[in-house]
């Protein structure tokens, strides 16, 4: 599906025949088209329940009518829940009703939820079953005074009853939804201040999802086992809307994304004869780490239907991809994923030769223009040189909600988006991602803005100063590390601060590596030199390598015992 250039590229600039995705209808249009193609095909399977496309459209239509009994087209509604079938139905129902959906990460804390709801002006929120030891309803009650626009808090467990009762008072017809209208507001961590809110239209989401699903190896009628989080654009965009455009079957393991065991995930693929298995790099690592005969080497022998594994979210290390291909006997495909670009910018394909596929993020999708530019001049670089990745096409966001200044920094008048990623492009258009332009940490597909963590840690009475950076990790892509200057002594500081964060931050924001210093290096302007700290952290953590004489003295704490509620502190 990718339009190859007529000859080798000299400059890192991929120019497609057309910029606008060919398939960019509304979210409702996508579901209606799937019903017209395969009304009785299984559309969604979760646990022992399943829905045909006709069933899914019926439930989504009832849900849209119920929503319109309380909301009007253009209203904002949020969803704060783990993966589940009601999440998927709600996404289609909101699309049919012309509402704007705001996904909230399931593990978000009170501050994150309050900010997303207040900033987006959400009038309602749907909450899932509370995880053990917490109460989403209780959290919302505690911040209700800061949410003047919020009128409705609805449990997804009451979704069926809501559809049955609410639709009685709803309008008899659904609105005409313009594909160019806003469909979702997706929050992604920023480089300064609060999280950014990317504005994505129906067309940008559906167009990108349909093209990406086929580029990554999807075929009509495929069964796809998806463990990616629905709260992320890879789950609610690429997976949900991409599978529907294949008129395929979406097998959704119930419960938290990533919470399904390796054996159970592969058992689902075998039971439902899955052609594609979608995971993030940490989950792929877990599949390989499980040494049981039921999981290792299952590919061609255990279920012959499996054609490919899609690794979404975080960058995929080449050695991990190679190990997975050897173990499972099928290609592992991936790409460059970014919320502001509608999800998928570049992708590899199962048909790519291993030398092009492994370690690569693939080539730009059809309809996507891409260039690698100099960080200094902004000029297009020759092939092979590393610079900032810039993207243009119909899948690119409209901008950031209520932030024209930041929008202008990343979107220029010609429609080019500065992705903030560093990468290179070879003469055939294959791209490699080298890291982040700024300090944003991408851990397992989840963006982490260091300032969020620093603010929390600075609230501890023993912490005088802190800097948070990302360090490379084999399975997560990056993990969160904290360099701390203590003002008061603290017994077992790494464990104490980890537990402190555990009651205040989502799990993916909690630092898992710690160093303690007497001072932090600064620039002439007084800013902490985070790049230098990240390098020093790696150097100091390496075996047997002493710090340089002029460096700040660093103390590496011992590894703490395993905790069932917090991540390991791994050195």
> Low-confidence spans: pLDDT under 50, at least 5 residues?
293-302, 540-571
Instruction: Work out the number of β strands.
Output: 28
Mean residue pLDDT: 84
Q: How would a crystallographer describe the biggest sheet?
A: 7 strands, mixed
Strand order of the largest sheet: 3-2-11-10-12-13-14
Specify the overall morphology: globular
- Helical fraction equals 25-40%
Strand content: 15-25%
Would you tell me the structural class of the helices and strands?
alpha/beta
CA radius of gyration: 23 Å
Termini gap: 44 Å
SS element count, helices: 17
Textual characterization of the structure:
By secondary structure, this protein is of the alpha/beta class. It contains 17 helices and 28 strands. The strands form 7 sheets. Strands 3-2-11-10-12-13-14 form a 7-stranded mixed beta sheet, with helices on both faces. A 5-stranded antiparallel beta sheet has the order 1-18-19-21-22, with no helix packed on it. A 4-stranded parallel beta sheet has the order 5-4-6-7, sandwiched between helices. Strand 2 (42-46) and strand 3 (49-52) form a beta hairpin. Helix 1 (27-37) runs antiparallel to helix 2, helix 2 (53-68) packs across helix 3 and helix 10 (281-289) packs across helix 12 (318-328). The chain is globular. The two termini are 44 Å apart.
């Amino acid at each position: 599906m990718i339009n190859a250039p007529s000859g080798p590229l000299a400059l890192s600039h991929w120019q497609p025949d057309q910029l606008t995705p060919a398939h960019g209808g509304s979210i409702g249009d996508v579901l209606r088209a799937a019903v017209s193609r395969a009304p009785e095909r299984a559309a969604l399977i979760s646990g022992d329940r399943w829905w045909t496309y006709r069933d899914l459209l019926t439930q989504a239509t009832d849900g849209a009518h119920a929503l319109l009994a309380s909301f009007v087209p253009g209203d904002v509604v949020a969803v704060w829940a783990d993966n589940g079938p009601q999440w998927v139905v709600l996404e289609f129902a909101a699309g049919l009703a012309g509402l704007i959906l705001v996904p909230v990460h399931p593990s978000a804390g009170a501050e994150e939820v309050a900010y997303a709801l207040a900033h987006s002006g959400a009038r309602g929120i749907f909450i899932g079953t509370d995880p053990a030891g917490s109460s989403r309803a209780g959290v919302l009650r505690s911040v209700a005074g800061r949410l003047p626009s919020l009128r409705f808090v609805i449990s997804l467990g009451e979704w069926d009853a809501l559809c049955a009762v609410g639709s009685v008072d709803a309008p008899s017809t659904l609105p005409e939804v313009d594909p160019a209208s806003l469909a979702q507001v997706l929050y992604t961590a920023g480089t300064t201040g609060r999280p950014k809110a990317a504005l994505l239209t129906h067309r940008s989401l559906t167009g990108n999802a349909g093209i990406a699903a086929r580029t990554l190896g999807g075929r009509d009628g495929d069964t796809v086992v998806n463990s990616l989080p629905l709260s992320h654009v890879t789950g609610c965009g690429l997976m949900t809307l991409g599978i529907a455009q294949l008129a395929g079957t979406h097998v959704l393991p119930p419960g938290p994304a990533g919470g399904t065991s390796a054996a159970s995930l592969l058992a689902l693929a075998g039971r439902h004869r899955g052609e594609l298995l979608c995971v993030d790099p940490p989950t792929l690592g877990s599949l390989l780490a499980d040494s049981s005969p039921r999981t290792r080497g299952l590919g061609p022998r255990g279920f012959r239907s499996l054609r490919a594994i899609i690794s979404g979210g975080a960058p995929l290390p080449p050695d991990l991809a190679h190990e997975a291909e050897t173990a499972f006997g099928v290609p592992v495909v991936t790409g460059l994923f970014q919320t502001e670009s509608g999800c998928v910018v570049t992708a590899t394909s199962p048909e790519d030769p291993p030398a092009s596929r492994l370690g690569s993020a693939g080539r730009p999708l059809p309809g996507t223009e891409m260039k690698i530019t100099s960080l200094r001049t902004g000029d297009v670089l020759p092939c092979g040189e590393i610079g900032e990745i810039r993207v243009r096409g119909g899948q690119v966001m409209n901008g950031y909600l209520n932030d024209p200044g930041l929008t202008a920094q990343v979107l220029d008048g010609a429609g080019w988006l500065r992705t903030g990623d560093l990468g290179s492009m070879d003469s055939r258009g294959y791209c490699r991602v080298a890291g982040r332009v700024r300090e944003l940490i991408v851990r397992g597909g989840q963006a982490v803005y260091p300032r969020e963590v620093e603010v929390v840690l600075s609230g501890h009475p023993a912490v005088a100063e802190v800097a948070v950076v990302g360090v490379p990790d084999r399975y997560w892509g990056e993990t969160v590390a904290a360099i701390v200057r203590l003002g008061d002594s603290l017994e077992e500081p790494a464990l104490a601060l980890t537990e402190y964060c555990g009651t205040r931050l989502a799990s993916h924001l909690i630092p898992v590596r710690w160093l303690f210093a007497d001072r932090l290096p600064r620039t002439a302007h007084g800013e902490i030199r985070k790049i230098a700290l990240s390098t020093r952290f790696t150097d100091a953590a390496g075996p047997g390598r002493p710090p340089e004489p002029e460096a700040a003295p660093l103390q590496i704490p011992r590894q703490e015992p395993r905790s069932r509620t917090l991540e390991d502190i791994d050195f």
